[in-house]
Amino acid sequence: MYNLIMTLLIIVSILIVIATMMQPQKQQDALNALSGGAVFSGQTKKRGFEAFMEKVTAVLLVLFFVFAIILAYMSTK
């Protein structure tokens, strides 16, 4: 059981890296944050691929933490 959870944790970790790299870049946001023009940039609703990738990343992160907690619990016994 421990090996199965460890394998799932490794797979989820790799998928998190891939999902993070696939998200659209926001080059303009960094420039606006430095210049002080980032007032309205966070108020637009994400749509399409960007919204989908954000949800996928959130689900993968939840799975990662669940598997990590399970492994920590199993390693104490």
Descriptive report:
- The chain is mainly alpha-helical and 77 residues long.
- It has a domain at 1-19 and 49-76.
- 75% of the residues lie in helices and 0% in strands.
- It is built from three helices and no strands.
- The chain has helices at residues 2-22, 27-35, 49-76.
- Helix 1 packs antiparallel against helix 3 (49-76).
- It is elongated, with a radius of gyration of 17 Å.
- It starts with a helix and ends with a helix.
- Its main location: membrane.
- Belongs to the SecG family.
- One of its GO terms (biological process) is intracellular protein transmembrane transport.
Q: What layout of secondary structure does this protein have?
A:
Elements: H1 2-22, H2 27-35, H3 49-76
Helix pairs in contact: 1-3
Structural class based on helices, strands and sheet pairing? mainly alpha
Number of helices: 3
What value does the Rg take, in angstroms?
17 Å
Low-confidence stretches: none
Please bin the fraction of helical residues. Answer: over 70%
Kindly estimate the percentage of residues that lie in beta strands according to DSSP. under 5%
Globally, the shape reads elongated
Oligomer: single chain
Order of helices and strands: HHH
**Major sheet details:** none
> What is the β-strand count?
0
Give the end-to-end Cα distance, rounded to a whole number of Å: 13 Å
Mean pLDDT: 83
